[in-house]
Design a protein that fits this description.
Layout: E1 3-7, E2 11-12, E3 18-25, E4 33-39, E5 45-51, E6 58-60, E7 68-73, E8 78-83, E9 92-99, E10 111-112, E11 116-120
Parallel strand pairs: 2-11
Antiparallel strand pairs: 1-3, 3-8, 4-5, 4-9, 5-6, 7-8, 9-10, 9-11
């Protein structure tokens, strides 16, 4: 059973950066597409970014385009979300998800991490 553990959330000032990590165990991320999602206070969970299982195709929500970068590192069995030029509205709990058959942010997603809090505030 694949297990995902997110880390890297922190308090940063507007304009700052965070790199979120999603470390996998019990399986290799090479066999999974990865999605990053977030839930802001009082809001529905939203998809942020996606990377495909095999060809590295990526997708970004409009809110993330030009600021966020998703990647997978087979050597460390970890997925990353690099977030730059952060805004207060990026404040949320960020979750990673993995699915061997996911073809977009719509999924299907079979495994989820527990989330990591990212807060953007001065």
């Amino acid at each position: 059973q694949l297990q995902l553990v997110e880390s890297g959330g922190a308090l940063v000032q507007p304009g700052g950066s965070l790199r979120l990590s999603c470390e996998a165990s019990g399986g290799t991320l090479v066999n999974y597409a990865i999605g990053w999602f977030r839930r802001a206070p009082g809001k529905e969970k939203e998809g942020v970014s996606y990377i495909s299982r095999s060809d590295g195709k990526t997708y970004y929500a409009d809110s993330a385009k030009g600021r966020f970068t998703i990647s997978k590192d087979p050597a460390t069995n970890t997925a990353y979300l690099q977030m730059n030029s952060l805004k207060p509205e990026d404040t949320a709990v960020y979750y990673c998800a993995a699915g061997p058959r996911a073809t977009s942010l719509a999924g299907p997603w079979e495994y989820w991490g527990q989330g990591t809090q990212g807060t953007v505030s001065s």
